[in-house]
Design brief:
Largest sheet of chain A: none
Number of strands of chain B: 12
Radius of gyration of chain B: 21 Å
CATH topology of one domain in chain A: MetI-like fold
CATH architecture of the largest domain in chain B: 3-Layer(aba) Sandwich
Number of domains of chain B: 2
Largest sheet of chain B: 8 strands, mixed
Strand content of chain A: under 5%
Oligomer: heterodimer
Structural class of chain A: mainly alpha
CATH architecture of one domain in chain A: Orthogonal Bundle
CATH class of one domain in chain A: Mainly Alpha
Shape of chain B: globular
Number of helices of chain B: 11
Number of strands of chain A: 0
CATH class of the largest domain in chain B: Alpha Beta
CATH superfamily of the largest domain in chain B: P-loop containing nucleotide triphosphate hydrolases
Number of helices of chain A: 16
Distance between the termini of chain A: 41 Å
Order of helices and strands of chain B: EEEHEEHEHHHHEHEHEEHHEEH
CATH topology of the largest domain in chain B: Rossmann fold
Chain lengths: 341, 342
């Protein structure tokens, strides 16, 4: 074997690079924190996969009115006119369209009331995602404000806010949610949209779940408020509001994003648990938890599909949300070494 | 007669701690004229920074509190101002440069954003004009390709460059007083002089008075017109830089000066040091606060706290009972150090 090397002859592409480099000198495109964040997030395969899955779920859920039966609770499957209602309830063998196993025209089968399970799963996704996002938004708002005020103003404000937070964190989640969820439809002073459906449950879960985020934000503020750039901002004439929201909050945004994402997953699970127990979103609005409960009722008789499809949708969605949370945490933590997942 | 730029009368700033009340600044009075360069020197914990923070009213209760005193800025008492009025003063008429440029800039904003924010807070200009002012401010502090660097984040700057940005920020609103709290301590020795030169040149062009807080006596000698030496929360000596350097009247000043290494010092010669450590600001010694560490203490020093009295040069004042009788300038500190060891 010879040790001689081919003389280096740059091809056109290399030449182009070399020229470009000469024109640019040694200046390098600045890499911002966001660039780094995106690079790291993109390398987190599970998180990207989960994000893709959730986007697909969200898309299907958004176009639900066009691809499913209205509200998913009609006693028929899609595409058949309502006037033939009575005829359609019976299939070829004279049986009702109840508890039909998955097949070509009912991909997920039908339930005991002859409802299309796929339509209901999709509509149930609407409720679950909405509860998750609404609860996340409420938690992000409440937890951030409480934590920021407590962390920025030491003394009585901090003490009273954090003792209140301790109180909320001390409440047992499921029992309190059951009691309030049970009472919710009867609280006549609330508007109708709050008493039934996803809004009431979201507010309830939001008010029960903000405690952890408040503690995290407070801890961030406690350490950030002592930083010199905060003092420099004060010395430059910035007022408290400006310091809290413009100078400290952006520095504390990473844990807020991560924790809020995880809360979205928790909210979806807790809502499903409540609906399973019959205290969440009320029928006939379909939810994954409620469908799982119904499915569990008929599963012993061999009608497994409602339970399986509702439960697996729930599990996959929550898993996806949690993986995104993991990915965000890894991507937002600059001290962590990049690791392929 | 126009009032002096800054007049501090009988300032006391205390901090409440678990162990007791820390008297960080006690009975401090001084004045500064327009355009003056004042050096404030002293050990860590001597009250230099707390004095500056008190002037900016950046002492935060409940931890610390300005107990008594008056801080007249252009004849107006800053301590009587509302927080809103004070926010106008901070960054507008009085600007401050901090010790560590690595942490004094907010990491999540570009330096352009931060400069523009400061300018918008204090000047009635639009965002675009503010950006032009910001660019000019960066040009003034000799940052190359200022327009592009405006969109860079703090982590893309070196320490010296960041301190230049801080200076640009401090001077962007043409303050009348610039307080620089150890602005070069965190920097490389080679960039220290550049930064100080630049800061003081720019301040002079704008007629800005500078209060330079430092423990580096060399810096003070090179850059300041007047000096005040602080010890345990009080001013122990003040005067023009020349007076203080060539004819120190207070044993503490003398101790500080003679503990500096000198180029003309003989090899292997013992370096003078001020013996002991600064007193706890909670349990201050009776009488003169420097007495336990003083080589020249006599009976009266343990009984009465000396007041500032004229001694030495025309502008010089010293808080020492024996200022008049001691001739510190002619003492050989090195010999004293040798003797002390024996």
């Amino acid at each position: 074997m010879s040790n001689t090397r081919e003389p280096f002859e740059p091809d056109d592409a290399t030449l182009g690079l070399l020229e470009a480099e000469e024109v640019e000198g040694i200046s390098v495109e600045p890499v911002t924190q966001w660039d780094l964040f995106w690079t790291r997030l993109r390398r987190h395969r599970l998180a990207m996969l989960s994000a893709g899955f959730l986007v697909a779920v969200a898309f299907v859920v958004l176009i639900a009115p066009w691809i499913t039966c209205p509200a998913g609770d009609q006693y028929q499957f899609c595409g058949r006119p309502l006037e033939h209602f009575a005829e359609q309830l019976k299939d070829d063998g004279g049986r009702l369209y109840v508890n039909i196993a998955p097949r070509g025209d009912f991909l997920f089968g039908t339930d005991e009331l002859a409802r299309d399970v796929m339509s209901r799963v999709i509509h149930g996704g609407r409720a679950s995602l909405l509860v998750g996002l609404l609860t996340g938004a409420i938690v992000a708002g409440l937890g951030t404000v409480v934590g920021a005020l407590a962390g920025y103003y030491p003394g009585p404000i901090d003490q009273s806010l954090m003792r209140f937070t301790d109180l909320v964190l001390g409440l047992p989640l499921i029992p309190v949610a059951i009691v309030v969820g049970r009472l919710l439809p009867e609280l006549v002073f609330l508007p109708e949209w709050m008493r039934r459906g996803v809004w009431g449950i979201s507010f309830l879960l939001g008010f029960l779940l903000w405690g952890t985020l408040a503690r995290i934000v407070r801890a961030e503020f406690l350490s950030l408020r002592e930083k010199e750039f905060v003092e420099a901002a004060r010395a430059a004439g910035a007022n408290d509001r400006r310091i809290i929201f413009r100078h400290i909050l952006p520095n504390a945004i990473s844990p807020i994003i991560v924790q809020t994402t995880l809360i979205v997953g928790t909210a979806i699970i807790v809502e499903a648990a409540l609906s399973f127990l019959g205290f969440g979103v009320r029928p006939p609005i379909p939810t994954w938890g409620g469908m799982a409960a119904e499915g569990a009722g008929v599963a012993p008789r061999g009608y497994w599909w409602e339970l399986v499809f509702a439960a697996s949708s729930l599990i996959m969605t929550v898993l996806a949300v949690n993986y995104i949370g993991d990915g965000l945490r890894d991507a937002l933590d600059p001290t962590q070494t990049i690791e392929r997942k | 007669m126009t009032p002096p730029l800054l007049e501090v009368n009988d300032l006391r700033t205390y901090f409440a701690t678990e162990e007791g009340v820390v008297r960080a600044v006690e009975n401090v009075s001084f004045t500064m004229e327009r355009g003056e360069r004042r050096g404030v020197v002293g050990e860590s914990g001597s009250g230099k920074s707390v004095t500056a923070m008190s002037v900016m009213r950046l002492i935060e209760p409940p931890a610390g509190e300005i107990v008594t005193g008056e801080i007249l800025f252009n004849g107006v008492n800053l301590l009587a101002m509302s927080e809103d009025q004070m926010q106008e003063v901070r960054g507008g008429q009085i600007a401050m440069i901090f010790q560590d440029p690595m942490t004094a800039l907010n990491p999540v904003y570009t330096i352009g954003d931060q400069l523009v924010e400061t300018i918008l807070l204090h000047q009635p200009v639009r965002r675009r004009e503010a950006r032009e002012i910001a660019t000019q401010a960066l040009v003034d502090v000799q940052i190359p390709s200022a327009t592009q660097r405006l969109d860079d984040y703090p982590h893309q700057f070196s320490g010296g460059m960041r301190q230049r940005v801080m200076i640009a920020m401090g001077l962007s609103c043409n303050p009348e007083l610039l307080i620089a709290d150890e602005p070069t301590t965190a920097l490389d020795v080679t960039t220290q002089a550049q930064i100080l030169d630049l800061m003081l040149k720019l301040a002079e062009e704008r007629g800005t008075a500078v209060m330079l807080i430092t423990h580096d006596l060399g810096v003070v000698a090179g850059f300041c017109d007047t000096v005040q030496v602080m010890y345990a929360g009080t001013i122990v000596e003040r005067g023009s830089a020349n007076e203080i350097y060539y004819d120190p009247q207070h044993p503490y000043t003398w101790g500080l000066l003679s503990s500096m290494t000198r180029l003309d010092q003989a090899q292997r010669q013992r370096l003078h040091s001020v013996k002991g450590a600064p007193p706890s600001l909670i349990n201050l010694p009776r009488g003169c606060r420097f007495r336990p560490r003083c080589d020249f203490a006599i009976d009266i020093c343990g009984k009465a706290l000396p007041a500032l009295r004229q001694s030495g040069g025309a502008l010089q004042e010293s808080a020492c009972h024996r200022a008049a009788e001691l001739d510190l300038a002619s003492l050989d500190a090195a010999k004293l150090a040798e003797e002390r060891v024996r």
